[in-house]
Specification:
Helix content is 21%, strand content 39%. With 247 residues, the chain is an alpha+beta fold.
Length: 247
């Protein structure tokens, strides 16, 4: 079995919101071996999903040469890294809907145009061929299933940002545990964007202020977002932290 996960949509906050949510989409693929009882195996499978948000804060006394990452943080000690985890909920999934997808290369070649065999093979995705028909082969393929897992964040996270000497980046971690097959766990991690959007009232105030100061509204909004993104160790210890937030 293989499991893949795509990057979710961002967590969006406005000036007054105290929670946000998004969804992670997982794709499961299972290729059977031999003549095992697939349906009985699927009925025996139970899924558990443990979700977390990883918070990586990079800081440096010199400008970053590139977008900071784990390698940059461990190279020469010039870049610091603070790695934190926000624990989210656990979800139990007793049943999953599976569908069988035929492989395009598994169908036998077509015999002649317009025959009934043609229509069956076309449904299986085989291309045209000439010459006498070959003996039919057993079609091959794989079983697939799709899971949607909600990511609900109680509390407001600072936005994703990156400047010359500091950056805050997020990832979603899903630990999928499967019972009933040999491989029992999968660890998945993809980037997560956290976005703060201004309310209509704040946007109107910024437009008025920009007209008074002569500053472009977009530049003013970017500067305010950058200022709001800045943090310190004192701010991380404040009372407005989300639950289960462990520096």
């Amino acid at each position: 079995m293989t499991v893949t996960m795509s990057e979710p949509r961002p967590l969006n906050y406005d000036a007054s919101s105290l929670r946000s949510s998004t969804e992670c989409h997982l794709r499961l693929e299972f290729s059977p071996i031999g003549s095992e009882d697939i349906h009985h195996g699927f009925q025996a499978m139970k899924f558990s999903i443990y979700s977390l948000i990883r918070v990586k804060t990079f800081y440096s006394v010199k400008s970053f040469a590139r977008l900071p990452n784990q390698t940059l943080a461990s190279d020469g000690g010039k870049t610091g890294l603070r790695n934190e985890l926000v624990k989210l909920g656990t979800r139990e999934i007793p049943h999953v809907a599976w569908a069988y997808n035929f492989s395009r290369d598994s169908a036998s070649p077509r015999t002649s145009r317009g025959s009934s065999t043609d229509s069956i093979i076309n449904e299986n995705g085989a291309g045209p061929s000439s010459g006498p028909a070959n003996p039919p082969q057993s079609p091959s393929g794989k079983w697939t299933a799709n899971l949607t897992h909600p990511i609900c964040m109680e509390g407001q996270l600072p936005p994703t940002f990156c400047c010359s000497i500091a950056a805050r980046l997020y990832t979603v971690i899903l630990r999928l545990k499967v019972s009933g097959i040999r491989r029992e766990s999968f660890n998945l991690e993809v980037p997560l964007q956290v976005v703060h959007t201004a309310s209509d009232r704040i946007s109107e105030e910024e437009t008025v202020m920009a007209g008074q100061t002569g500053e472009d509204p977009i530049s003013l909004g970017f500067r305010r977002a950058s200022e709001a993104s800045w943090f310190s160790d004192e701010s991380l210890d404040g009372p407005n932290l989300p639950p289960h937030y462990h520096p």
